[in-house]
Amino acid sequence: MLRQEQFNSLLLPIIYHHFELGQSRVPSLRSRLFSVRNSQLAEERGTGMGGMSPDAWDVYKSTKGGRKGRLDLDQLYTQNYTHVEYPVELVIEKRLVLNDQYGRIQDIVRRSGISAEQKQEIDAAGVFNNAFSGATWSDGKVLCATDHPKSPNKSAGTYSNKGTLALSKAAVSTTRIAMMRFADDKGNEIGLTPNALLVPPELEDTALEIANSNLDPASANNAINPQAGRFSVISWQRLTDTNAWFMLDDTWLSEMCNWYIREPLQVMMVHENTTEIIYELKLHYSYGVDDWRFIYGHKPS
Q1: Run of H or E residues at 177
Q2: DSSP per residue over 141-153, as a string?
Q3: How far is CA 196 from CA 234, 235, 242, 274, in A?
Q4: Quick count: other Cβ atoms within 10 Å of Cβ 179?
C-alpha cells in the first residue's frame, strides 16, 4: 500500500508540470497589457505622478539671475493593491494511481491549469470590461470617464478619456488627437503618442483595415490612409462589449497598469482517505491601474 509521502513524491511533479502546461494552452494577454511583477509586501501602493511646470526653467533668466525656478511635484491619487488569495481543492482518485492511469491524472491537472489561467485572464479583462461602469480607481472614477478630477489639490475643472464614437478611421483620428492633448494636473500636455488599438474580435477586421491599409479603405479615389502604420491592433476575446474599443499609449500603459504576484502557485496535499487524495492549489495576486492617462475608451450608444 502506498503511503502518503509516496503519493506526494509521485504526484507533485506531475501536478506542477501539467498545471503549467494547461496554463500555456490559454491565449493570454495579461503580460501584454499589464506590468507583471512579484510582490514581497502585504499590500502594494501606486500613485499617479503630477507634472512639473516647464515655466520653472525660465525663472532664472527672467529674474536676471535673481533666483532659480523650482520644480514642484504633486503626488496624485494613491491606488492600493490588496493581494487576494484564491484557494481551491483538487481531488485525485487513488485508483488512478493504483491502476497506473497517470495519463488521466495529467489530463485533470492540465484542465486545472487551464481553469486557473482563464480565471486570471477574466480578471485582467475586467479592468477594460468595467472601464465605463463598475470598478472605480484611485481618483474615485471608473477607468474611462468624462469627469476625472485634475488632482487631489485642484477642485476646478475635469478631464475626459471617454467617448461614444463607433470604430472608424475618422474616430481613430479624432481620438488620437484627443489623447495627444492629455494634460497633467498643471494643465501641461504630457506628450502621449497613442500607438495601439484594443478591440474585441468583432472589431478586429475593421481595426486592421484602419491600422494597416495604405489607402483609405472607405475611399474609391486612392486617397491615402494617414492612420496606416501608426497603430498595432490587439484583439482580445475576453472583451465582452462587441462595440466598445480602446486606444492605448504603450509607454504609459506599462507605467500605469499593474499585476502583482504575491506568491507563485502553491500546491499542498491536505487530506487523504481510502479512495481520494485532496490537494489544495492557491493563486495569490492583485491588479489594477495607478492612473487613467494611458487609455481612451469609446462605448458607442
Answers
A1: helix 169-180
A2: S-SS-S-EEEETT
A3: 7, 10, 18, 56
A4: 21
Q: What is the pLDDT of residues 94-151, one digit of tens each?
A: 888 878 788 898 999 999 999 999 999 999 999 999 999 988 999 999 999 999 998 8
Report yes or no: 92 and 19 within 8 Å, Cβ to Cβ.
Answer: no
CATH topology of domain 4-49+74-298: phage-related protein like fold (3.90.1690)
Amino acid at 83: H
C-alpha 245/C-alpha 172 separation (Å) is 10
Nearest to residue 294, comparing CAs of 191, 172, 140, 187? Answer: 191
Q: Would you tell me how many other CB atoms lie within 10 Å of the CB of residue 99?
A: 10
Contact 27, 61 (CB under 8 A): no
pTM more than 0.85: yes
pLDDT at res. 1: 47
- In this structure, the number of other CB atoms found within 10 A of the CB of residue 298 comes to 22
